[in-house]
Write a structure and sequence with these properties.
By secondary structure, the chain is an alpha/beta fold. The protein has five helices and 13 strands. The protein has one domain (21-42, 71-190): 4-Layer Sandwich (Metallo-beta-lactamase, Chain A), CATH 3.60.15. Helix content is 25%, strand content 25%. The two termini are 36 Å apart.
Length: 192
């Protein structure tokens, strides 16, 4: 994946050195923020139309196939104020959420994808938050729906269902609003 992304970044005007390798179990500190890779469970395929070799792209597309590009990942971001954020990525719930995300990294804010197509649905994500990760607060993400109107969660949506099932504060991102969290995972400014 590194080589693929390096070519895409260069084509967009960047440099290959802007892409670095970080695999499951590894971590790097960039600008004072520690980034660690954690496992996820979902497919990681690339559509044939993204391949630069027309022959291979056509062969895959003819059979309705895509190219496998390696294992999937979520991330832990550790900030200097003590905030530890778990970014679930597209995943189902896994035992690593307890053993690695909660017990080892001690994530106090979780950004959980809840869309129920390529990710956990609202019930699965609520179970992950309540029983496995146990963060101090959660940001609902990747719902695959129009979840808010005028900054308010729409009743009956997956986001609404998730918010009602989770035992800690659930924050819903809205366009143009910024949320700030303290080192304990509590929203302290912005669209809290």
């Amino acid at each position: 994946m590194q080589g693929f992304l390096q070519k895409k970044v260069v084509a967009a005007g960047g440099t290959a050195s802007q892409v670095d390798v970080l695999l499951y179990g590894g971590s790097r500190t960039i600008g004072g923020v520690k980034v660690a890779v954690v496992g996820t469970v979902h497919n990681n395929n690339l559509g044939a139309n993204f391949l630069s070799d027309a022959t291979h792209a056509a062969a895959l597309a003819a059979d309705g196939l895509s190219a496998y590009v390696g294992p999937t990942h979520g991330y832990i971001l550790q900030f200097t104020n003590g905030l530890k954020v778990y970014l679930s990525g597209d995943t189902g719930h896994t035992s690593d959420m307890k053993l690695i995300v909660r017990d080892f990294y001690k994530a106090n804010l979780a950004v959980l994808n809840i869309g129920n197509i390529f990710t956990m649905g609202p019930e699965e994500a609520a179970f992950a938050a309540n029983k496995l990760i146990k963060p101090k607060s959660v940001i609902a993400s990747h719902a695959n729906e129009e979840a808010t109107s005028g900054g308010v969660v729409i009743a009956g949506t997956k986001t609404d269902q998730f918010s009602k099932l989770v035992k800690v504060p659930v924050h819903v991102p809205t366009s143009g609003d910024v949320m700030e969290f303290n080192g304990n995972g509590k929203c302290v400014a912005g669209a809290c």
